[in-house]
Amino acid sequence: MAKNIGKVANGGGMLYPYKGIWPEIAESCFIAPGARIIGDVKIGEGSSVWFNCVLRGDVGKIRIGKNTNIQDGSVLHVDSDGFDTILGDNVLVGHMALVHGTTVEDDGFVGLDATTMDGCIIRKKGMLAAGSLLSPGKIIGEGELWMGRPAKYIKDIDEKALRAFAKGAKKYAVTAQEYLREYS
Predict the structure, then answer these.
(1) How crowded is residue 128: how many other Cβ atoms within 10 Å of its Cβ?
(2) pTM as predicted
(3) CATH of 7-172, one of 2.160.10.10, 1.10.3720.10, 3.20.20.70, 3.40.50.300
């Protein structure tokens, strides 16, 4: 890419077109320095993409809802056979996660260093544990915890843990707004 082709996003991260399609980022999003967002990517209000993430919507699309956060070093990509990456509202994606051609519904969680593969779905309030690998086409049910390499169902998530996840999403949304003020 030519050095001057990108645009600086709110917070200092970079936006790049692919085949003439630019990312669309809500004004209230924080895109940290070092983050790179390419192509057909749309991100909703209050969401955040942290340091050194890559979101590459080149052979498909990436859609991210409101108040969702993609933590440091994570990669989101799509599959050329039709599996887009779709994240709902209040989704947490842990540090160094790889989310590929996957749907994560509202309040879902992808743990630190976890991997999802093409055609996977994490239903509302579902969780893929840290370090786990969700193999192609697997579906985590609503409120379920899956763990392992390959990931398997472990248990239903209790209400206390679900409340903690909700607090985590809110905390990141607040922190992102603090960063936006600091980096403006």
Answers:
(1) 31
(2) 0.95
(3) 2.160.10.10
